[in-house]
Each structure stands twice: as C-alpha cells, then as structure tokens.
Amino acid sequence: MKITDVKTHRLRYPLREKFANSRGWSTSRSAQVVEIATDNGFIGWGEGTGEVNRSAVENHIIGRSPFNYGAICQALFDDGVSPRAISGIDIALWDLMGKALDMPVHQLLGAKVRDKIPVYASGLFCKDRQDLTQALVDEAKEYVDLGFPAIKMKIGFGAAYDVKNATAIRRAIGDQVLFAVDANCGYDVGTAIDVGRKLAHNDLFWYEEPLPTDDVRGYLEVKRAVPIRIAGAEGLAGCRAFRELIQQRALDIVQPDISIAGGFSECRNIAAMAHANYVRVLPHMWGGHIRLAATAHWQATIPDAPDVLHPIPSLFEYDMTENGLRTELAVNPIQAVDGALPVPDAPGLGIEIDRDVLKKYAV
Ligand SMILES: [Mg+2]
Predict the structure, then answer these.
(1) Which residues in 136-252 belong to E strands, given as ranges?
(2) 93 in the same domain as 57
C-alpha cells in the first residue's frame, strides 16, 4: 500500500449567533481537513490546524506506506513542518492503517479501556443577550435535563461577571453535576488567584487556563493558592512544549488537543509523560467531526489513574455550540447518548465523510 495523493480542504462555517470567550467574539468556525489516498483505493481522513507545504508532501509522504507513520512524521518535523500541520497527516495515516487492517484506531493504539466516554457539555459562552445570567442558567439546566454528568462555562470576563454567573449556575444545577470553568488564558497571576478564591465555594471540578500557557511559574503559584484542580495546555504543539508544565506539575490536568499537539503519535508521547508524572490527561476537543472521532479513539485508550473502585471519570469535551463542521461532516456522526459518547468500532476512525458537506463549506 503506497500513498498516491495528499489534499487539504480548508472549511469555514458561519455562525448564526456570535459568542465570546475571554479573548474575543467568534462569528465563524473553521477546520483543516486532510485527505490521503493510497494506490489500493483507501482514503484516510485527518484534521489539523496547519498546512503541510507541497515540497514536504512530495519529499516525505507520496510513495510511502501509511505504516511508516513514525518515520513520515519525524521527517516532516525535521523539515520544519509544524506539529499543528503534522497532526492532520498523522490522524489520516492512522485512519488508513485501521482501514487496511479492518480494525478501529483504538485497537491499533492498544485497545479501548472503555466502550463509552462520559461527556461534559462544553458551552455557556458569553452571548449578546438582554439577561445573560438567566440565559446561562437556562442553558445549564438544559444540559442537566439532557443527562450530562458535567458542564463547563466560560469565565475570564472579570471577577464580577465570573462570580455572579458561576454562582447562579451552580445554584440552578444542584450539587450532583460536575462543574468546571475555563478562562482561556484571560488573567494574570494576581487576578487568577483572586477570582479562583471567590469562585471556590461553587465546588468547581477544575479551573482551566487561568493564565497564558507558557507561564509555568505562574501556574504553580495559582495551583498552590487556589483549592481547585488547575487544567490547561490545549494550545501546545509538540510533546516538548508540554515538558515544563508536566514535569514541574504546574497542572493537575493536562488537556492536549489531537489536532494541535501532533496527532495520535505525539499525543501518546504526551500521555506517557503525564502518566509518569502523575498528571491527569483529559483531551481538549474543539473542532470538526474528524477531530471529534480521533479524540474519542485516543481518549478511549487512556487508563483510569489511579485505577480504583470509583475513579475520577475520564470526561470527553462535548462541544455544544453551533458548528456544521462537527454536526454535518460525517454521514454517520458519533453522538452522545444519555451523557456518554460511544466509541466507534468500525475500521479506522469509524466515520464516513460527506463530500457534499466538504464542498458546501469549502473556503
Ligand atoms: Mg479551554
């Protein structure tokens, strides 16, 4: 089996209603889909966040077997291709290997340790609404009614906004639902500690990205000052970018994104480093359906740590915002049922791409 072609599809989906995290407003969603064809008729799909230049494709991918994934990704990296771009290639190569062997990717990764992954509803963004607090409370209650065991809201809009809205949501959802907050790197150390202490009475499961990702010392200060698990690192690319945060244990929960960090191959390296340092891994997921499928295969193979009678659940980030690139791209989308995501068992990523949707949202 030899690779004969590599294509990139750049997709954009315009939002009906804009929303904001602490960094700014979003009016559209995007995805970079990689399509790799082989001489025996298989198509592998990947999703990355950067593009591989044509000469790197010709020099390192065309004519090789997908089973050379390690050597291919290393050659791309040595040639200066970013892990963000390698992510899409690596995911497509694993999809091809699974299809060639008639096995799901989670099997190739060493087998899933769970058949379904509990999900958390990732939403509760800032919106342009008259009574935003009531709108957030209604949205949170809807997630609980749908059976989600956990939810996450966006904070980082200042202590007054964060405390008022997080407290209203916790009061509305009761004390049985896990509740996390995400500041999207919106604070400095002093503000992060102040806000964290003011929010702590809401029994928060984690406090995500209070600071810019590279502020390792700052994360250690926040972690020691605030009685909430600290999470982060969704934007880091390549396993070495995670070294200091993991080895210094500046995070309780590390959140690699499979389409940013470098695909299955690099995420396994990051998970191994986290495992060796007793840091929990809960992948980040924010993108199209290929990214969702890839994340599900990888996350299904991450063991509970520690392995106990009642482990802390491995929670899948289930994006509740509007995005046709996630909801329309697969003919057979993977969807959460009763608060858990079933892990696909069909070959490769286990999804079939709708080419009409690829065309519809092409840039
Ligand atoms: Mg986040």
Answers:
(1) 150-154, 178-182, 207-208, 230-232
(2) yes
Which of these is catalytic: 9, 60, 106, 284?
284
**280-281/316-319 β-pairing:** unpaired
> Measured in angstroms, how far is the CA atom of residue 10 from the centroid of ligand 1?
23
User: Does 60 qualify as catalytic in the annotation?
Assistant: no
pTM for the full predicted model: 0.98
The pLDDT tens digits of the residues spanning 203-244 come to 999 999 999 999 999 999 999 999 999 999 999 999 999 999
- Looking at the structure of the chain, the number of domains it has is 2
**Same domain as 201, residue 118:** yes
Q: Are 303 and 322 in contact (CB under 8 A)?
A: no
Expressed in angstroms and rounded, the spacing between residue 329 Cα and the centre of ligand 1 is 23
Residues 300 and 176 in one domain: yes
Distance 132 CA to ligand 1 centre (A): 21
What distance in Å separates the CA atoms of residue 263 and residue 237, rounded to the nearest whole number? 10
pLDDT in tens, 302-357: 999 898 999 999 999 999 999 999 999 999 999 999 999 999 999 999 999 999 99
Q: Is residue 96 domain-shared with residue 214, that is, in the same domain?
A: no
CB 41 within 8 A of CB 176: no
Mean of per-residue pLDDT scores for the chain? 97
Q: How far is the CA of 255 from the centre of ligand 1 (A)?
A: 8
